[in-house]
Design a protein that fits this description.
- By secondary structure, the protein is an alpha/beta fold.
- The protein has a single domain (13-119), classed as Glutaredoxin, CATH 3.40.30.
- It contains five helices and five strands.
- The protein has helices spanning 3-8, 22-30, 46-61, 77-83, 109-119; strands at 17-19, 36-41, 67-72, 90-95, 98-104.
- α3 links the parallel β2 (36-41) and β3.
- The longest helix has 16 residues, at 46-61.
């Protein structure tokens, strides 16, 4: 454990990557080697604000295994149109540049744990 982690109590948190343009979405989601959970949210949405700390914990817990990104409704309109998001929060799951699924509404941390373990289990490197 690093000196700062000892001093401030624990590992640093991993925050979701902020996306706001088609270019940033392409770079961090479509070209990602890791699976990506994208949270589409709005500042005026109470469930979105409730979901934010959950996704920070998920990003921290699965750092190096899953990438978490966030996209606000203030992002580039073309990007929001292409994703066809109709409600917030909407969770999009991408892997190898393809959308694998989506879910609207708040989900607890346990939902993310179960989804990640089911869809992206750790594999034994020796097999």
């Amino acid at each position: 454990m690093s000196f700062l982690a000892k001093l401030f109590g624990g590992s640093p948190q991993v925050v979701p990557t902020h996306l706001d343009t088609w270019e940033s979405f392409s770079e961090h989601v479509l070209k990602s080697e890791l699976p990506v959970i994208v949270d589409v949210w709005s500042t005026s949405c109470a469930p979105c604000r409730q979901l934010a700390p959950v996704l920070t914990r998920v990003a921290t817990k699965y750092d190096g295994r899953i990438r978490v990104a966030e996209l606000t409704t203030d992002a580039e309109p073309r990007l929001l149109m292409e994703l066809n998001v109709r409600a917030t929060p909407t969770i999009l799951v991408f892997h190898r540049g393809k959308e694998m699924g989506r879910m609207a509404g708040f989900r607890p941390e346990s939902w993310f744990d179960e989804m990640i373990e089911a869809e992206f289990p750790l594999t034994d490197a020796s097999s």
